[in-house]
Amino acid sequence: MITSAAPTFEHPISITPSDIDDMGHVNNAVYLRWVQETVVDYWQHISPVDAQEELLWVALKHEITYRVPLFLDDKVDALVTATGTRGSRASFSTNFRRGEDIATEVRSSWCCIDAVTRRPRRITHDIARRFLPS
Question: pLDDT category, 5, cuts 50, 70, 90?
């Protein structure tokens, strides 16, 4: 298992009217879409084009802690950090921040998939180091 201090990737979040539920705040299900968008954006930012063509990522598990609700006019950033890799799995921490406040914390596990075979693929040392530089 590879773990080390990793850089945090920042992804701006745009809240749309369709993200708001009957209670007037962002619907809980929307956070899953945001995690997906953020982790994929992070992958596209740090990886070479050939790796993006060869590898896909599938979410395996999300654990979400909601701290404070988010509303339509809030300015929100997602902060994602890789926390480890093992075999074909990578783990990430994604925090949704409004100003200085962490509104929501998400711990997630993802599986690296071969784009051709659609089967799990071991995360190579080179790819792991893109997430978790020494």
Answer: low
Burial label, 42 (beta-carbon count in 10 A; 0-12, 13-18, 19+)? buried
Whether 41 contacts 20, CB under 8 Å: no
d(CA 1, CA 104): 27
How far is the C-alpha of 51 from the C-alpha of 110, rounded, in Å? 16
Instruction: Give the type of residue at 111.
Output: C
* Secondary element (H or E) of residue 35: helix 28-46
Give domain 8-131's CATH superfamily: Hotdog Thioesterase (3.10.129.10)
> Sign of torsion, CA 57 121 10 46?
negative
pTM: 0.89
